[in-house]
UniProtKB/TrEMBL annotation:
Binding sites annotated in the UniProt record for substrate: 9, 41, 74, 88
Job of this protein: Reversibly transfers an adenylyl group from ATP to 4'-phosphopantetheine, yielding dephospho-CoA (dPCoA) and pyrophosphate.
Record-given protein name: Phosphopantetheine adenylyltransferase
Gene (name only): coaD
Pathway where it operates: Cofactor biosynthesis; coenzyme A biosynthesis; CoA from (R)-pantothenate: step 4/5
Keywords: ATP-binding, Coenzyme A biosynthesis, Cytoplasm, Magnesium, Nucleotide-binding, Nucleotidyltransferase, Transferase
UniProt keyword Nucleotidyltransferase, yes or no: yes
Main location: cytoplasm
Names of required cofactors: Mg(2+)
Pfam annotation, one family: CTP_transf_like
Gene source species: Candidatus Scatomorpha merdipullorum
Length: 167
């Protein structure tokens, strides 16, 4: 059985992530989408468990997709999961340097790990979780950018944060 791991911070999951998930799930027998911490990002709108739940709702129709969370190193997760294949999406040249460095560091830590890159669907090449968070703060529609359950959750989270700030 060929399993692949698709790690990311998914804060929140976007239609671009879902595009990669669908395509990777069509290639591998099982795809484990793993919500992790990106130490370089200060965000997060959602907790790890909330992000995992949003991914579970958004991938409910994909029977070979499983969602997990991990707070440590990706290489440790890959070693424990027994699958050496990691999927990453590439949107533009600007992603390349960061991804190249991460793949190289990860391979140094775990030489058996193989990072497989998939190009984002052209219609999602501009899309990022940070753009979604920014749009949500300005009450813009998120319909073209995130799955419906995610749009609802983002709106609720932003409203809750605003209510908290105005107290
Ligand atoms: O969606 P992102 O934020 O680009 O995903 C990056 C992520 C979470 C996959 C990366 O930061 C990661 O692997 N974090 C786990 C900790 C780790 O292994 N760091 C070493 C990376 S060189």
């Amino acid at each position: 059985m060929r399993t692949a791991v698709y790690p990311g911070s998914f804060d929140p999951p976007t239609l671009g992530h879902l595009n990669i998930i669908r395509r990777a799930a069509a290639i591998f027998d099982e795809l484990v989408v793993c919500v992790m911490r990106n130490g370089a990002k200060e965000c997060c709108l959602f907790t790890c468990e909330e992000r995992a739940e949003l991914l579970r709702e958004s991938t409910a129709g994909l029977s070979n997709v499983r969602v997990d969370t991990h707070t440590g190193l990706l290489t440790d997760y890959v070693r424990e999961s027994g699958s050496p294949v990691v999927i990453r999406g590439l949107r533009a040249v600007t992603d390349f340097e960061y991804e190249f460095q991460m793949a190289a560091v990860n391979r140094k830590l775990n030489p058996e790990m193989e990072t497989v890159f998939m190009f984002a669907g052209e219609e999602f090449a501009f899309l990022s979780s940070s753009a979604v968070r920014e749009l949500a703060r300005f009450k813009s529609s998120l319909r073209d950018f995130v799955p419906a359950p995610v749009e609802r959750a983002v709106r609720e989270k932003i409203s809750a944060l605003e209510a908290e700030q105005s107290r």
